[in-house]
């Protein structure tokens, strides 16, 4: 459990701290005493059923695809996440990652640190530029819209793909990922995880994006066919990629790490002290308000419906 969450809940609740893998080793008495869970990552149907009196699952983060929301709903259990508090941080990191990929800034720094500049060598010109690009966003939710607003500042055209068009945005809607990839040369994935996005970005999408294409993923690693991405980067189907999320975190494919045209980050788009504290506070506030008022602050959409 996050330290800030523990500190925030101390005095308001009786705390029982267990690792996710140990939830099923709780005694029957311990399991029956649990009314709320604050968790990071997955919490499946078996975990839920181990706790007969569970009322609330408070997820630490905006993504909740690792939680069996439907099973929770069937048992009358409310699931919450932490939207909004990390939106701007992730959007900022996304733009930083995009610029880094296009201009190869990390590689330039490594080249300088290795002493090449001091020896009078010239760093190679970047083959890519942000100028004249068209940006496509897969997933125009809170984070996707924040990314779009920042992209507008660069004067770049924007298109997007969602399950349905979004009202009150000036961007072009593409009814399929293939159409989106065919329309743009920079594809940013900010879609949530789950069955609707599982491996949605594959070989056909990368082929549509084309040899000048840049792919950025700050959504979920599960949305990408990682083998297809590796092939697309290796054979020049697309030009480059920047990834903050992966299919099997924290393990990252050695084949991916071996590629020079991909920038990889350890899922840190929202990882700042300020944002982490805000996320922890919202987890605490959800739990405390549930126990005091019987209402959650940020129930997930599926539960609200």
Automatic annotation (TrEMBL):
Domain annotation D-isomer specific 2-hydroxyacid dehydrogenase catalytic: ranges: 29-299
Molecular-function GO term, any one: hydroxypyruvate reductase [NAD(P)H] activity
Domain named D-isomer specific 2-hydroxyacid dehydrogenase NAD-binding: residues: 95-269
Pfam families hit by this protein: 2-Hacid_dh, 2-Hacid_dh_C
GO CC list: cytosol
Keywords on record: NAD, NADP, Oxidoreductase
Family: Belongs to the D-isomer specific 2-hydroxyacid dehydrogenase family.
Protein name: 2-hydroxyacid dehydrogenase
Native source organism of the sequence: Phyllobacterium phragmitis
């Amino acid at each position: 459990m996050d330290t800030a969450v523990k500190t925030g809940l101390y005095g308001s609740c009786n705390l029982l701290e267990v690792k996710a893998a140990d939830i099923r080793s709780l005694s029957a008495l311990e399991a029956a005493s649990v009314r709320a869970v604050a968790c990071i990552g997955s919490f499946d149907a078996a975990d839920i059923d181990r706790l007969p009196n569970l009322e609330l699952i408070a997820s630490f983060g905006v993504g909740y695809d690792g939680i069996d929301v439907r099973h929770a709903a069937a048992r009358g259990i409310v699931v919450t996440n932490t939207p909004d508090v990390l939106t701007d941080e992730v959007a900022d990191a996304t733009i930083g990652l995009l610029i880094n990929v296009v201009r190869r800034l990390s590689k330039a720094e490594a080249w300088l640190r290795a002493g090449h500049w001091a020896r009078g060598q010239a760093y190679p010109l970047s083959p890519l530029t942000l100028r004249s690009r068209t940006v496509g966003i897969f997933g125009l939710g809170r984070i996707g819209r924040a990314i779009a607003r920042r992209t507008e500042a660069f004067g770049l055209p924007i298109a997007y793909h969602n399950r349905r068009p979004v009202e009150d945005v000036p961007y072009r809607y593409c009814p399929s990922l293939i159409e989106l990839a065919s329309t743009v040369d920079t594809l940013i994935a900010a879609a949530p995880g789950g069955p609707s996005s599982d491996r949605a970005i594959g070989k056909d999408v990368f082929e549509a994006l084309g040899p000048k294409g840049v792919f950025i993923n700050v959504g979920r690693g599960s949305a990408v066919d990682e083998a297809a991405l590796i092939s697309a980067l290796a054979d020049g189907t697309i030009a480059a990629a920047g990834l903050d999320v992966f299919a099997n975190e924290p393990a990252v494919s050695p084949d991916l790490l071996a590629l020079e045209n991909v920038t990889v980050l350890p899922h840190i788009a929202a990882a700042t002290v300020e944002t982490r504290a805000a996320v922890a506070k919202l987890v605490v506030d959800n739990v405390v308000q549930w126990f005091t008022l019987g209402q959650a602050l940020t129930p997930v959409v599926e539960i609200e419906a």
